[in-house]
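Collaboration report, partner site 2.

Our partner group contributed sequences for two proteins of shared interest, and the home lab folded both. The records are reproduced in the order in which they were received, starting with the first partner submission.
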Amino acid sequence: MTCIYIIQNKINNKFYLGSTVNFINRRRTHLRELKSNKHHCIALQRAVNKYGLINFEFRTERAFTIVPRLSSVDTIDFSNYIVRIRAV
């Protein structure tokens, strides 16, 4: 399932926003990297180290049954996300 997903801190509501074509595999990869302290997003890794993985929620924000072509991505309204992406 292609989707936009969020990893949200339940304590302060800050979040990491990502997209993937396979949410289950991507979630598994995030969890493995976070548990081994090797996540590519240093801010997210530090937040997980500080608050504990149990205080983070993984959820899909928007799912797509058909993958949008790159030329049509701008038709998706990302205005609610852009400001908050850096809030991890």
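Second partner submission, folded after the first:
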Amino acid sequence: MSLDEPEGVEVVHVRSAREMLEASRDPFARSDIAVFTAAVADMRPASSDRKLKKGVDDELLTSISLVENPDILATLAAASWTRCFCRKAPVPPNVRKSMQEQASRHVA
């Protein structure tokens, strides 16, 4: 599924958490506020030079080493930026408490 890019919005297409972090640095530094609405996966395959297919790569698929993805929000917030709004998808009825906890972890 493909959506039209909204008029007046800068859209940057990325394929990985590392690409997202790098693509976010400059716009984040120029912003007065940032809204983080989703998180990338916490982990990624340590080596992923190609897609592994069952029936072809069965031996490789039995064990996949994982490494941590960068925490994009924490990395950017640590770069001396002072205002940040973070919203993940907390489960009601603790929406307010969850949002406050998220914000307090990422804003100095």
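Feedback sent to the partner group on the second submission included the following. The CA atoms of residues 45 and 62 lie 13 Å apart. The two ends are 39 Å apart (CA to CA).
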